[in-house]
Design brief:
With 219 residues, this protein is an alpha+beta fold. The chain contains five helices and nine strands, in the order H-E-E-E-E-H-E-E-H-H-H-E-E-E. The chain folds into two domains: 148 residues, Pnp Oxidase, Chain A; 38 residues, no CATH class. Strands 1, 2, 3, 4, 5, 6, 7, 8 and 9 form a nine-stranded antiparallel beta sheet that branches. A hairpin with a 4-residue loop joins strand 5 and strand 6. The longest helix is centred in the first third of the chain and has 14 residues. The chain starts with 30 loop residues before the first helix and ends with a strand.
């Protein structure tokens, strides 16, 4: 379904699976329950990769960089993603431990953006998640020196062959020492709900003076 938000005769988004008007009362229990609900709604709507989010970081020179990663954990503290700690994003976070992440679900006319500090998760958390990954993904993490140049696709596949042989007799492959999770702990969370005539609903939560405040923003 294509939704033209700029047209006065845009389709009824409530009828398209976007029930109810986003209201301040939805956030009475914080941002996490609403994010979880919208993630579940994206799954129900058959959104491809519903947990995909665009992660923006700042490098040591102050230049922004963005890429799509998968959210692998949601808690009242924040959202978790995993990567090689030598990757570009990890080096950016070492220099500037602050990031922005945006979930965008055009199919259901919703978006959530979280901004805040980023910390490494405990090694035990990484190991617990690692055990849920398919063996092929585990081998791929060992084979790839993420973000570093490689001569060719065949050279990368050869690296995979080497690690596959290395772990051929190992039932439980351990996570690489330089691979693990980050948790973005938001201080700002914004919920966006598309509506006709560009009169979209926007609610921003801000952590200030040890409490969350909610403000409605004009679209």
């Amino acid at each position: 379904m294509r939704v033209n938000y700029g047209s006065p005769d845009a389709p009824d988004l409530a009828a398209a699976g976007v029930p109810g008007e986003l209201d301040e009362s939805w956030l009475a229990d914080g941002w996490e329950p609403v994010l979880r609900r919208w993630l579940a709604d994206a799954v129900s709507a058959s959104v491809v990769e519903p947990n995909a989010m665009v992660l923006a970081t700042i490098d040591a020179a102050g230049h922004p960089a963005s890429r799509t990663v998968l959210c692998k954990g949601v808690s009242p503290r924040g959202i978790v993603f995993y990567t090689n700690y030598s990757s570009d994003k990890a080096r950016h976070l070492a220099a500037n431990p602050y990031a922005s992440a945006t979930f965008a679900w055009p199919l259901i006319a919703r978006q959530v953006t979280l901004r805040g500090s980023v910390v490494k998760v405990d090694r035990a958390v990484t190991e617990e998640y690692w055990r849920t990954r398919p063996r092929g993904s585990q081998l791929g993490a060992w084979a790839s020196e993420q973000s570093r140049p490689v001569d060719s696709r065949s050279a990368l596949e050869s690296r995979l062959d080497v690690v596959t042989e290395r772990f051929s007799g190992v039932e439980d492959i351990p996570p690489p020492p330089d691979w693990g999770g980050f948790e973005l702990q938001p201080s700002v969370v914004e919920f966006w709900q598309g509506r006709q005539n560009r009169l979209h609903n926007r609610l921003r939560m801000t952590w200030l003076d040890d409490r969350w405040t909610v403000a409605r923003l004009q679209p």
